[in-house]
From TrEMBL:
It comes from Urochloa decumbens. Residues 161-243 form the Beta-carotene isomerase D27-like C-terminal domain. This is Beta-carotene isomerase D27-like C-terminal domain-containing protein. Pfam families: D27-like_C. InterPro entries: D27-like, D27-like_C.
Length: 270
């Protein structure tokens, strides 16, 4: 989720209306004060460097919503001064940033087994949905080629804030070529956490299980720890963790604050 071309997605929050009969205004270097523009991505940075993101209020709102749900399962922060605790308590959903979101994820891992971490993420995902949503999803999107390709197309714009720039790619599922793959060029979550265990336990496995078991639409995620890209394949049943190459992945000794450099496999995967 391979090197990528510079990419930037900008969404205009307001658009000037041109009166009938008039030619469109000449483009300017700066937009009018009333036209707010929100830019939410850039080109992925080389391995070892962090990509620069410019998150708007909508992206921050998504981060805040997820972080607030995950706080229920997170260990408490270190004691803060009263004035900082008040500020944190009053924080609106759009006041969160990605670093805070990753910090909550890291605190969910503390004191939990691999299975408990994955279950916590599952509960968070379910809490984000209205009652009966998984059953409705199964009716709307049975595991057909069309459903797989449709969900791949939706993943690119809707999960940009979470994983960074991505694109739909052609993959082979059960001998059939289809555009139900998504290539995440450099995963924002892995890049910011620098943690193999967080990638696998807090993203890969629970997301695979959620789509495959709750939604009935198989999904396999193949992270590449060499360049932090990741391939998502809708329609492909994921293998058991014991048979998955990620189960043998060592830590990022220079990136992860929880790493055990001497261990042949990331301890969080055991």
């Amino acid at each position: 989720m391979a090197g990528a071309l510079p990419m930037e997605l900008c969404f205009a929050a307001a658009r000037a209306v041109t009166p009938a009969g008039r030619a469109p205004p000449t483009p300017r270097k700066r937009r009018a004060a009333g036209a707010a523009v929100r830019c939410a991505a850039t080109a992925p940075a080389p391995m070892g460097e962090k990509t620069e993101y410019r998150d708007g209020p909508l992206e921050r709102a998504f981060m805040g919503l997820f972080a607030r749900k995950m706080e229920k399962y997170a260990t408490a922060k270190k004691k803060q001064p009263p004035e900082l605790e008040k500020t944190t308590a009053k924080k609106a959903v759009w006041d969160w940033d990605y670093e805070s979101f990753v910090d909550v994820s890291r605190r969910v891992m503390v004191g939990r087994t691999r299975a408990q971490q994955q279950e916590a993420v599952r509960e968070v995902l379910l809490s984000m949905l209205p009652p009966g949503a998984p059953e409705q999803f199964k009716k709307l999107f049975p595991p057909t080629r069309w459903a797989c390709e449709f969900n791949a197309a939706l993943t690119v714009p809707f999960f940009h804030w979470l994983v960074g720039p991505s694109e739909v790619i052609e993959v082979e599922v059960d001998g059939v070529k289809q555009k139900s793959g998504v290539l995440i060029k450099k995963c924002r979550y892995l890049e910011n956490s620098g943690c193999v265990g967080m990638c696998v336990n807090m993203c890969k496995i629970p997301t695979q299980d959620f789509f495959t078991n709750e939604f009935g639409l198989p999904l396999t995620m193949n992270p590449n720890f060499e360049d932090m890209s990741c391939e998502m394949i809708y329609g492909q049943v994921p293998p058991p963790l014991e048979e998955d190459p990620v189960s043998k992945q060592p830590c990022y000794p220079n990136l992860c604050s929880m790493s055990t450099p001497s261990a042949p496999v990331c301890p969080k995967l055991q």
